[in-house]
Amino acid sequence: MQDLTKSGKHTMKRSLAGLCFIFCFVLALAGVATAGEADPLPSWNEGSSKQAIFRFVEEVSAPRGPGFIPPAERIAVFDNDGTLWSEQPMYFQLAFALDRVKALAPLHPEWKQKQPFKAALAGDLKTVLDGGEHALLELVMATHAGTTTEEFAEAVKDWLESARHPKTGRPYTDMVYQPMLELLAYLRANGFETYIVSGGGIEFMRPWAERIYGIPPEQVVGSSIKTKYELRDGEPVLVRLPEINFIDDKAGKPVGINQHIGRRPIAAFGNSDGDLQMLQWTSAGDGARFALLIHHTDAEREWAYDRKSPIGRLDKVLDEAHVKGWTVVDMKKDWKVIYPFEQQ
Amino acid sequence: MQDLTKSGKHTMKRSLAGLCFIFCFVLALAGVATAGEADPLPSWNEGSSKQAIFRFVEEVSAPRGPGFIPPAERIAVFDNDGTLWSEQPMYFQLAFALDRVKALAPLHPEWKQKQPFKAALAGDLKTVLDGGEHALLELVMATHAGTTTEEFAEAVKDWLESARHPKTGRPYTDMVYQPMLELLAYLRANGFETYIVSGGGIEFMRPWAERIYGIPPEQVVGSSIKTKYELRDGEPVLVRLPEINFIDDKAGKPVGINQHIGRRPIAAFGNSDGDLQMLQWTSAGDGARFALLIHHTDAEREWAYDRKSPIGRLDKVLDEAHVKGWTVVDMKKDWKVIYPFEQQ
């Protein structure tokens, strides 16, 4: 009975707190504006992109406005590579795979003679890429499978601690876009749930997405390999198998969104043709919608690439963005700062 | 610039509201207990099951206690059939499939001569079930595929409005367990996220889980068929294909949990051997864990079945529950009320 009494007290505490929360909510809506108001997107230069973001968020958040959308339906989806962090000179996950080939090589003496492993060990990226999708798949299977899910998460975290980007000499997780970090926070502060929807590996992103982006594991959608439940000496584990489960890219993105989220997003953010269908799916819904495309135009501070780039190819989706009036971010012009470390 | 100013104001409002929320939180923790405290689980009789629930929730919520778990990690997973609503005399989704065979029959004259459709049209459940898994799969594919995701959600909602349970004459969504509704609300009030992890179809549950259980679409995990993204006259749709994507049952449940949630739950609730691996996976994690099994013991108010039941077989998992000390709910003894409508 003691437990019941305790729980009863907790319920009452919750009721009081509930009333208080309602009061706070009313206060927030009533809008007690004072001096010292801050720009939530300080790393964005003034211009049409920044204004379009504000206009959309205001529109769906205004409680009595015609475009109001309840917070539960304010789902925003973000591509990762090239949208939240850089993706040059190669997808960062490929850098992980290549480093992991080296780390695992002592267990696989046969790799010295076998492509694409031989090239990976020699640091010969060109030969690896010339092997096409098949070679990449072989590398991914050899480096991403065979462990338990917990061991793999540790391997990702260990790599991120020691690996450095070839151009900046920084940890890869330093190379996230400051303007997008601000945008994620701004959307969440306005009741949005922010999801990653990436062609990258779901289990490659989850170990660090919460720390770096504030996005918890359950809001990460990505490509995956199959896993298998096993008891090892009575302890349950999930073993990662060398078999593709789902490719969350191109037409797979709306499929992954539906599978994981079960609601159509109201805002989508991408940077390449791999995001076309996600942007279409999002913007074709009823009511206020927002679609934004990042154009990498800054060869000096980041990279400049678009229609013919082997990584982050931005071609069809750029045409469609122009036709449909989606917001196109000109990185060089629209972003005051690229990386957080520039501010330090 | 107007938009920027507006957004600045919103930021300030949020800061004030943020302070206020912190105050409320402190108030809630400080525990201002007053008269009129209510039992959060009034439909549970006093006893060891109810006390075990209270003890666990108190333990993980006590901010300075040794068992404290941060709210973000308070993931609770619930089986659906037999755990949140009834599953006799057949899974409710099978009743949907059989009714849908009848609804679609005019488009399929060949079904009159072809099993298992012929039996389904004649209401001959025995012959359908004698056909085994293969027959059920054929029924599911014929009745769950071929539409867009939006059309399918409408079909489910339409069916729930008109269909009635053969024993109670009630809508199927009336046959949810009042004690479990209270438990869901109690856990959420204590910072838990409550997920469904069911062998049933993810798209069969999502259209009503939020209204009935307060569980939003993104917190429903279930079995699924594949979908395909298409443009129809320029409008994007997701078409449901007659091909299994994932079976979220038995050893599939920890796999589905990892895929969707990416964290190991700290509490799991089930009622059959199909939940064994989910309960193992949950309870093997570090720190405070809770595993609960519902034993259907009430032939009068609900149904009584266990070790040899063709539906909701409770055998291996009952043995493991006894060995591992999991909480076993005796429905007849532990539940004061079964369905919400008994209280009306």
Keywords:
homodimer, 344 residues, alpha/beta, 8-stranded mixed sheet, 13 helices, 43% helix, globular
Structural account:
Two copies of one chain form a homodimer. Chain A is of the alpha/beta class. In chain A, 43% of the residues lie in helices and 16% in strands. The first copy, chain A, contains 13 helices and eight strands. The first copy, chain A, has helices at residues 2-30, 48-61, 92-104, 117-121, 125-130, 132-144, 149-162, 178-189, 202-213, 252-260, 276-283, 316-324, 331-334, and strands spanning 75-78, 193-201, 220-232, 235-246, 267-270, 290-297, 304-305, 327-330. In chain A, strands 1, 2, 3, 4, 5, 6, 7 and 8 form an eight-stranded mixed beta sheet that branches. At the A-B interface, α1, α2, α9, β3 and β4 of A face α1, α2, α9, β3 and β4 of B.
